[in-house]
Write the structure tokens for this entry.
Amino acid sequence: MKPSEYRSKTRIYVDILESVRREGGKARFTKILYSANLSYHRLQRYLAELEEKGLLIKLTDAESNVTWYELTEKAYKLLAEFQKIKRLLDAFGLSI
């Protein structure tokens, strides 16, 4: 994707989920922020939406007060299906 290209909401969701997946299935907010290339407030909104859709779980360690996001099984399935669709579209010279 070229830097000047518009990202759809679906593409942003996938970018966030992929950034968490690359971190081993769980990642802290700041890591996702830089990896998904979003502003603080936009990322907060998207993370809340992904939680509502059952794709991410927000966890906090009570002792250290550290918060991170974990992928759900549903998120792994979504990412696998997305990759299939992306490969199909790429084969026809199309993009998401």
Notes: The beta strands are 26-27, 56-60, 67-71. The radius of gyration is 14 Å. The helical segments are 9-22, 29-36, 40-52, 73-91. The chain is about 55% helix and 10% strand.
